Prior knowledge:
40% of the residues lie in helices and 15% in strands. The protein is α/β, with parallel strands linked by helices. The strands form two sheets. The protein has an eight-stranded parallel beta barrel with strand order 7-8-9-10-11-12-13-14, surrounded by four helices. Strands 1-6-4-5-3-2 form a six-stranded mixed sheet, covered by helices on one side.
Amino acid sequence: xxxxxxxxxxxxxxxxxxxxxxxxxxxxxxxxxxxxxxxxxxxxxxxxxxxxxxxxxxxxxxxxxxxxxxxxxxxxxxxxxxxxxxxxxxxxxxxxxxxxxxxxxxxxxxxxxxxxxxxxxxxxxxxxxxxxxxxxxxxxxxxxxxxxxxxxxxxxxxxxxxxxxxxxxxxxxxxxxxxxxxxxxxxxxxxxxxxxxxxxxxxxxxxxxxxxxxxxxxxxxxxxxxxxxxxxxxxxxxxxxxxxxxxxxxxxxxxxxxxxxxxxxxxxxxxxxxxxxxxxxxxxxxxxxxxxxxxxxxxxxxxxxxxxxxxxxxxxxxxxxxxxxxxxxxxxxxxxxxxxxxxxxxxxxxxxxxxxxxxxxxxxxxxxxxxxxxxxxxxxxxxxxxxxxxxxxxxxxxxxxxxxxxxxxxxxxxxxxxxxxxxxxxxxxxxxxxxxxxxxxxxxxxxxxxxxxxxxxxxxxxxxxxxxxxxxxxxxxxxxxxxxxxxxxxxxxxxxxxxxxxxxxxxxxxxxxxxxxxxxxxxxxxxxxxxxxxxxxxxxxxxxxxx
Length: 547
């Protein structure tokens, strides 16, 4: 396999030679006295015992004069060694991730090697990450730790902590975290820093806050102070999914009752938080906020007030032309930024499934603009599914998109994601059956076409083969992805069996009772796999036979 297939993701400039550099024995050479840059390689490459002879050297440097953008790096392999030079510490780290990806490519001659390589690479979007912002059961602490490691491997640089059903994030936002929960947050902050991931702590006070009350604002700052002491250095305030009008009498008296008055309240809270909390502490990054009016591109009374009153450096999250969308063109991004009067970041509700927990979305990111020259977009944070491990299939493609826009190929990225995530290849028929996006699209255009052709008397062989792949899905695949998808595996197996029973009946080889029983069993599952594809086909067959 071409080693470039394994780079996370495709570099801006790469030249690969035909010869390979054997790294079975290597030593790590300190670069510019920077322990932080060097230690990222220690888990990736074997080291020799003290005093032993080594064949190759892996050297890591940080050089701010490379002419590369932030987080960029060069990687050169040849002449008996590997040299990684990062524009900054993050760039050195990402160069190490690319080296690890190259090492993962199979080689018939060496247990660990890289081709002669000359790579010059950097990200297109400065903000690349995820936001745990869904409704439903929040991820576990172990899920989050593994997600941060996954983010580092795939050059995602941001994780936003905003689980809707964490009571201390939303409903009980005034209350400090219990010590046990606070300790877990501190561990996440530490792991994020090790993976060069920005840990953004979000608070969502809009359900109950009296915005004009100084005591309420002090409570918000006190909550932020608690997690600051735990290591948090970046914050977001979320005003999404709340009533658009002001509900407190004091707020109505302060900000008015006209349409869009709540924007004045939200801007005032953001300004107070920035001036009285972030600035005195020397926070390096400005505040990010989610407006109540977070979807669409048109100017509104709310957005006009926000544009006029929100501090200029506050970044605004926006979800696209709607809450969950199939396509986000560049002109929508530009129009949205203009409507808010601020630079925007895309809160991409993909592959989130909190609007329909019966489904999982295992396909690639599609429909996102790649020509963003001059577009005021800071970057993308994808909102994943409740199923943390299964989300990594889609999130791998988000990472590829955000790193190199012009080179992004959804199908190619999806194939690579499946190869890289343990358990995904074994469950490929299920992954393909759950790859449609947006949610309202045909769950499988290919299977729908095959079913229609079969009803019209066409050949059955391809349809039978696809249904058999579903019916024969393994149930003993190890790993977290398979555990999370067990309900969907069971549903897919029964759906495949129902389709085969209907196909047998159509071909004159099955029985009516067997087809009806198989269909009833397939439809008994809560997990939705091809529910709008196979059952309609089976019913058409049953109607035809019983007519």
